[in-house]
Amino acid sequence: MSKVLILESVSKSFSVQRNRPLTIRELLVQSLLGRESKKHTVWALRDISFSVRQGQVLGIIGHNGAGKSTLLRLISGVSYPTRGHIKRFGRIGSLLELGTGFHPDMTGRENLLTAGILNGLTSRQAKMLEEEIVEFSELGEFIDQPVRTYSSGMYLRLAFSVAIHFDPDILVVDEVLAVGDLRFQQKCLERFRAFKNAGKTLVFTSHSIDQVKNLCDEVVVLEEGRMVMIGDPQSAIDCYNELMRERTERQKARVFGKVEEQAVLAGKQGKRLGTHEAVITDVCFYDTRGRAISGLGSGEGLTVELKYRIVNPVGDLALILGIYDEGNTKCFETHIPSFREAFGSLGKQGSIFCSIPELPLLPGRYYLNLGLYPPDWDYVYDYHWQMHGIDVVGKRLPHASGIVSLNPVWSVCNGNEDVAGR
Amino acid sequence: MAIKADGLADVGKTGYLSLVFRGFRYYRGFLSHQLDLLWHLVKRDFTLRYKGSVLGILWSLLLPLAQLLVLVFLFQRVIPLGIDAYPAFVFTALLPWTWFSSCLNSAGSLFLSNRDLIKKPGFSPCILVGVNTLSNLLLFLVVLPVLVIMIVAFYDKPLTPYFLLLPLLLVVNVVLIWGLSLFVATLNVFYRDIQYIVSVFVMLLFYLTPVFYSPGVITEGYRFLYNLNPVAVLIQSYRAVIFFGRAPEWGAIFIASVLSLLSCVVGYVFYRKKLHEIVDYI
After folding, report:
1. Mean pLDDT, rounded, for B47-76
2. CA distance A71 to B273
3. Full-prediction pTM beyond 0.80?
4. Which ipTM did the prediction report?
5. Dist. CA A338–CA A165, nearest whole Å
6. Do the Cβ atoms of B194 and A88 come within 8 Å?
7. Based on the domain organization, do A222 and A109 belong to the same domain?
8. Is residue A262 part of a domain?
9. Distance of alpha carbon A24 from alpha carbon A35, whole angstroms
10. Are A220 and A315 in the same domain?
11. Strand pairing partners for A94?
């Protein structure tokens, strides 16, 4: 298939003097005194080359500040590369940062008409699509309210509906789907698939590994403005995780000077990763009556105690707890984005409890993977992978497999007369 | 982008004649779309301007009228200038002046206040300058009949065929305003002081332009300077064709046209040079 998007060694730099433009006075002072402003150039993207074929879904992953959003802005033509060329064939639609793209004082309807005309439609064509868009966005009567009154979810719904309905050949989506409710997200993902099946091209970034795995044909991994790799989703995700590990190692070396192996929790198997600025010192399991256990019956309750210690003062923590089976399939995962927001101030050390009233897992061995992260999830303080195993025991249901233990009750309605009657 | 892709994508396979044809179709399509866009944005500008105000478009009438009242009071009662039909005389000049000054005063913040449009792929920000120029022109044209009625009915001055020269003056004026506004709008993205400097400049220019006085009272030596001020020349010409019903000074108009074109070219070249950076700064 033909290529619809070609990037040839694209670089983008921003000159950062301050966080605001120069005023005339500063300019005059500088030119009179002959002092060069201390302009230092930050390269947001360096030498990115790849191409996208028609009908492909390209994912872009990378850490915060890796240059994903800048790259998407360049691809959609909102901003221009400092060096290199971008060739596009076809109409571009984009769904970039929320909060731009619509005028806050105009109503949703007025905004969508403007967007339509900007997308190359005549006002008549845009009016024809209007009802369809309003319906898809599910905004109802809110469509005639000014956009500034919208919640971020409503804003996203309108922006997405507008972007997908004006029939672009290439759709560029920044990780905005995160704010929509799950049902609308699902609707969007379905729409993406239909879009792809219609031979259209999609370029998007996401933090959700699942979305990347499920949707993408090819994935670009960015790290500090450079393209680390382009390839199939699985190897890209592996690469991304590897980068995360390297970053963690670097941070650890920076914090503690030399990388030292800490022999806490010796004797346990599994893997441990992190800078150890904050550490998980121990993990204990209790049953509903508060007794320490190493196994429990299927469907019984479980309380996990996580003892932590802050080694290097950190402002806040994010915390993740996942239950995985032996094949490393995720059964359940939950996280707390900000310790401070959830529990208030962060002590030097302490315990965090997580109670799960019922754990309806099929009998087998499971692992609790726990992690402490900085709130921006940039690297890892401490992550325990397959270090804390727990056995779920119970009568194995015959002829059942999977993860969740459900109690199926089979019955049959073999009504011959019923069938005959119909 | 889209049109480019449809129209000029595979040049290699086609002959020159069809290329010319395609090029023509491309530009016609492009132009009609740009006009459509321009018109839509002008309407949008109007909606935004009067959203939530009770009097709406009337405000645009009230401002020059209030200014007119003050000027008439000042220069007919307090310091009489002794100009015949003074209210109509001032109003003829005040309307184009209001157009010019409100365009330039809003030019500075033009790109900054329309972030939503500038951050759309394929949108060229210079359209906003056109929108601003045109929507202020529309206000001028809305009030124009009031002025004409005032001149004809109250002061008994007939309209002459020279009135038909008005579109020519409007075109020159549009070119001048567009060029200056584009320059100001672009520069203000990088140096935010510009909009304040411009408003001071516009205020001073008001006194240097024969809006409320007649240039006849200026001494010979300074006359030549007036001809170099395209706003003054245009205002005098509006006054000639609408109020006096006589031919404007063609030589002065020629100079003003050249200066307007020059401002247009300078503005556009500067804008093109900075275009790629505008988005990053906004």
Report:
1. 85
2. 22
3. no
4. 0.74
5. 37
6. no
7. yes
8. no
9. 15
10. no
11. A172
